[in-house]
Amino acid sequence: MREAGSDAVGGATMPGLVDLLRGYHVPIGHYDELLEGPSRPRPHWSTFGEHAGTLDARELSRAEKRIARQLHESGVTYNIHATVGPPRPWALDVLPHIVAAHDWESLTVGLRQRARLLEAVAADLYGDQRLISEGHIPPALIYRHPGFLRPCHGTRPSSGVRLHLLAFDVARAVDGEWRVVATRTQAPSGAGYALENRLSISRIFPDAFRDLQVQLLAPFFRTLQETMLEHAPCGSHTPHIVLLTPGPFNETYFEHAYLSRYLGFSLAEGADLTVRDDRVFLKTVTGLRPVHGILRRLDDDYCDPLELRADSSLGVPGLMQAWRSGHVLMANAFGMGVLESPALSAFLPNVALHLLGEPLHLASTPSWWSPDHQSLEGPIARISDMVIKPAFPDAAMEVVFGSTLDSSGRRSWHERMHSAAERYVLEEYVPLSHAPVWHAGHLESRGLMLRVFLVSDGRGDYRVMSGGLSRIAGAERQIVSGQRGGSSKDTWVLSDRPVERVSLLPGRLRPEDIVRSERAVSSRAAEHLFWLGRYAERSENGARLLRAVLSRIHHDDAIISGGSRPILASCVRHGLLPGSRGERAAAPDPSPHEFERELIRGLYDPQAERGVAGNIRRTVRVAGAVRDRLSGDNWRVLNKLSEMLTERAFPHHGVAEALDMIDQAIISLVAVGGLEMAHMTRDDGWRFLSLGRHLERLLFVSQTVADVAASETVEHPALLEWLLEVSDSIITYRARYMGHAEWLAVIDLLLFDPRNPRSAVFQISKLAKHVPLLPDPDLATALPALQRLAETRTGEPVSGDLFPRADALRSFLRDSEDVASQLSDGLTMRFFSHVYEPARSTLL
After folding, report:
1. What is the DSSP string of 13-51?
2. Are 119 and 69 within one domain?
3. Are 220 and 64 in contact (CB under 8 A)?
4. Same domain (yes/no): 207, 104
5. Are 695 and 623 members of one domain?
């Protein structure tokens, strides 16, 4: 994945930063990331200005819109808890956060030391516990913390490493020195967003990115990839690594799918995995496949309902025992949440001297914690200068800034600290540094915090990502939070030497390395891909049907109207109209205007689950569940498709606008199908998607032809032309026959022509081709029926005695529909039914 592009801002000239600085202001008492004096940019910002092209309000605003559009179209989201509606687009500022090389070097030295220290602390807490017995860490701080998992005590990971991936939130104090504000050791998030930020911003300023010698992010991810593969306990086998995700409803699911695809790891939910004989397996369509390593994005509590949280439906029963047995690498190991306690930082300086024999190179925010309130009298007396945090994550409270408390609030907190001091941590308030942000057409300053990621190299040290996730405050300027309207920046770490180009691709391959291996297709992924094919095809069929009706209503032809039995039957069958066919047949025929309004209402109605809108929503939803298997172009089309209906309301739209929207939807749906054919590897996942499409298309053409065949007006040219248009075959028919539509010719084209990609026989032949290639020979029992249907007509010229009896045609249509339904049921029972196992009782 490359980290630079060509969508540059402006031209070659650069008027400088002077004009942009008018109105830019950093509050007193905060470090300024941009200026070192009045209107005097820091050296690295001056260099950026020289190489960034035209930096003026117009160009920056254009770049801002381009970035927002790109992120939106690519579906880069950060979901917010407890909200209803579409996911929130990821917010990214157009200007990077630039860090000079010497600043970064001092920071990385301190962070690597701190990572080694936390690894040593974790080994002690789950081993001899000398830090507790010798008084370096209070017992209450550890044993009271829900992140300390007693089932992990005495377990040594097979790799010898507990913290494979961790992150630190750091900020600059007023003096410009870095401070550690928070630690993320359980399942740190944000590395994928940092990579996406880099791809976006480096395309906006490609010259500056190159000329400033910005360090790359790829070496960090390569180390993570290599460490996981090297230390996974797989014997002589090729290691199989999965990324364990809570699923599409998690706020950072985009990142999970993104990293899975980038690192080459299988994306798995808890229901995709099972434990047998203390070993982990992925449920795939070819059977159980061993899993040797898990990069988890699931918190400890939810990972194993047998030993941890019994009501969790996200985890894998027995996963902890498999890890304890040394049969699977867990990154990170269970029980690392205890290291995230803000109270622990108060004791780390002493612990560093004891375990490492050296002082901490990088200071934490000064903090105080004690189970005895008398030890906290000094900090409590200065509560206005403090930040109050919960010592343990199970406390239901927000961070409290002492400076915002009135006299009553301070008195209340004095009482709480005296009655339950062990619940809280007092931290000295450190004003965040401020960085330039382009907002609402002008430059302003916002508080900034940087999340830096580290990965174990497997040899006792850590590699620091040369960059990170820079987060900026929103309206609440004291709090940096994506859930409170904050934004992000790309982090540019400059280098004093030329930057080495690095790729995640391996080095020169040996002949024995060139082995084609199928990418694992989990049963869950296969099911979602199968239904992605069905919903996408169902959406397109419904849209074509609706367009063919709406565009003909005003032709004053009773054959295409609300009173036409085949038209009505097809519209009801495919969810374009409410009610059943029996109810509609018994009701009075609607007027053309009423019929038109009812169809348009069904198009936009979010409650019409079987209509076009409902099927498009289903298409996008199941695509989101397998977005790690879809190309960026594919997702952009799907994302645009989703917007077509959410941005429009029914009451203000007539036939013309409805038809315009339907045309756009069909174009997007056709593009989705084309991208699937052009971009997807022909593995089992693609095969299930294709099966879904062909099954749905066979059902549609069989049912639609059956509705027309049952009509008394079956020979009417207008009805037959409508049928040809619905089946996307009218151009082929006109080119072939040069005349009005006739029943036998239409039937031959739509049902028996093996060259027509919309015909029933074409779908049947594709199904007959795919079924034998499925990883289960038992489903081959469907082959005789498919082959019999495919041979119903072998290509001889249409003749009047093709179907001398109407029941022969009905039999073919009925058999086609039955075979499609039976095959769908067979696929479900064989490949999908075991994905969601019955809930297991884990409580006695």
Report:
1. ----STGGGTT----TTS-BSSEEETTEE-HHHHHHHHH
2. yes
3. no
4. yes
5. no
CA–CA dist 467, 97 (Å, integer): 9
Per-chain mean pLDDT for the chain = 86
Is 272 a domain residue? no
Answer yes or no: is 256 within a domain: no
CA distance 307 to 299: 14
Q: Say if residues 422 and 21 touch (Cβ distance below 8 Å).
A: no
Q: With contact defined as beta carbons under 8 Å apart, do 783 and 772 qualify?
A: yes
Residues ≥6 apart with Cβ < 8 Å to 699: 817, 820, 821
Express each pLDDT in 610-666 by its tens digit. Answer: 788 888 889 989 998 998 888 888 888 888 887 776 655 445 568 888 898 899 999
Q: Which of 680, 701, 723 is the last residue of a domain?
A: 680
**What contacts 267, CB < 8 A, 6 or more positions away?**
242, 243, 245, 256, 257, 260, 261, 525, 628
Q: Which residues contact 657 (CB under 8 A, 6 or more apart)?
A: none
**pLDDT above 50 (res 325):** yes
In degrees and rounded to multiples of 5, residue 173 shows phi and psi of: -80, 180
Neighbours of 799 (CB within 10 A): 10
Q: Measuring CA to CA, how many Å separate 89 from each of 78, 468, 707?
A: 6, 20, 44
**Cα–Cα distances in Å, from 591 out to 563, 579, 594, 722?**
8, 17, 5, 20
Residues 634 and 665 in one domain: yes
Q: Is 619 within a domain?
A: yes
**pLDDT tens per residue, range 592-608:** 788 888 888 878 776 66
Count of structural domains, the chain = 4
Of these ranges, 473-477, 574-578, 725-729, 735-739, the one predicted with the greatest mean pLDDT is: 725-729
Q: Is 88 helix (H, G, I), strand (E, B) or coil?
A: coil
* Pair 417, 457: CB distance under 8 Å: no
The angle formed by the CA atoms of residues 600, 602 and 603, to the nearest 5 degrees, is 65
User: Which DSSP state fits 131?
Assistant: H
**Signed CA dihedral, 612, 615, 617, 620: sign only:** negative
pTM: 0.88
Q: Are 357 and 388 within 8 A, CB to CB?
A: no
The domain in which residue 558 lies consists of: 523-680
CATH code at 415?
A: 3.30.1490
pLDDT in tens, 364-375: 889 999 988 888
CA-based nearest residue to 423, from 400, 405, 448: 400
Neighbours of 139 (CB within 10 A): 13
d(CA 354, CA 621): 53
In-domain check, residue 237: no
Reading the block at residue 564, the tokens are 């036409």
Q: Are residues 547 and 586 in the same domain?
A: yes
Residue 696 predicted with pLDDT over 90: yes
The reply to whether omega before 332 is within 30° of 0 (cis) is yes
**What's CA 636's distance to the chain center, in Å?**
13
| Residues 386 and 463 both lie in one domain | no
Chain centre to alpha carbon of residue 159: 29
Whether residues 558 and 621 fall in one domain: yes
**671 & 756 share domain:** no
Residue pair 580/572 in contact (Cβ under 8 Å)? The answer is yes
Tell me which residue has tokens 């990839």: 225
The DSSP code for 589 is: P
